[in-house]
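Translate structure to sequence.
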């Protein structure tokens, strides 16, 4: 029998592309998001043997729906992909906006990881989608960067804890992708340099390659991010945040 994957945030962007590429590899997909029309569109594209669940993962009800789905059905792969940012100086946005970011990017990832790993079997895999900003805190999206630092650190520890039972955990750290993420996060960012941007197709392809080799706790998908991460090893934290602050105020 083919493998089964649950992907959060699969109605567009990276999640949708992961669903398409996993389907091509024989996976059956359960796609999770809020927008039913977009989920139906995905089903049209990947075929009717797949399914979707409409859930708002920034609410306890939505989170519980997916915890329930995980308890009722075995998944070979869970991808915690749904995420959102908040663009602006910290005190200039309403606190409620940050609470949503914290709930979706952290609390949901923890709850779903817990539900999944409790019953995961050898050979199963969990991918938590983080960001390269986890390594480079960027003022203007400071809270978002901090949530991704959490997801990365959390996933690394899970990778270590789970490997002895044959369950693979990946913290996926993409850089800038050509999706609608910036608009969904409050926009305001000018178009990033093309050389630093990958398509969701490219990132999904790199993700599935890393999933097959199952050996890296953290996967950086962009060459430019690998370069920055290397160069920043020789910088102080103060120098890194100051550099990122200058980049942030220029965009
Ligand atoms: N784009 C980038 O440059 C970039 C860079 C590094 C990391 N990332 C990370 O990569 C992941 C995917 O980003 P993306 O660029 O594909 O974003 P995107 O195009 O904005 O898509 C986000 C997905 O998450 C879903 N979603 C948002 N809020 C949700 C909620 N409350 N409940 C359930 N689903 C929700 C959206 O579906 P609905 O609106 O239908 O709910 C959509 O399917 C995120 O974790 C993001 O932080 C993105």
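Result:
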């Amino acid at each position: 029998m083919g493998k089964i994957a649950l992907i959060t945030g699969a109605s567009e962007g990276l999640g949708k592309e992961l669903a398409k590429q996993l389907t091509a590899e024989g996976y059956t997909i359960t796609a999770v998001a809020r927008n039913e029309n977009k989920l139906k569109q995905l089903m049209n594209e990947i075929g009717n043997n797949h399914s979707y669940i409409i859930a708002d993962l920034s609410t306890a009800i939505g989170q519980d729906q997916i915890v329930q789905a995980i308890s009722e059905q075995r998944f070979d792969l869970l991808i915690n992909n749904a995420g959102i940012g908040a663009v602006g100086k910290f005190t200039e946005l309403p606190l409620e906006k940050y609470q949503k970011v914290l709930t979706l990017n952290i609390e949901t990832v923890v709850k779903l990881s817990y539900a999944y790993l409790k019953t995961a079997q050898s050979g199963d895999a969990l991918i938590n989608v983080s960001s390269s900003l986890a390594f480079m805190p960027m003022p203007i999206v400071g809270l978002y960067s901090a949530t991704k630092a959490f997801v990365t650190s959390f996933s690394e520890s899970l990778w270590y804890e789970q490997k002895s039972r044959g369950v693979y955990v990946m913290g996926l750290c993409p850089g800038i992708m050509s999706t609608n993420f910036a608009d969904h996060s409050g926009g305001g960012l000018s178009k990033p340099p093309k050389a630093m941007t990958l398509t969701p197709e490219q990132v999904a392809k790199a993700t599935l390659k890393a999933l097959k080799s199952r050996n890296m706790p953290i996967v950086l998908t962009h060459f430019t991010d690998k370069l920055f991460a290397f160069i920043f090893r020789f910088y102080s934290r103060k120098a890194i945040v100051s550099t990122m602050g200058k980049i942030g105020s220029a965009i």
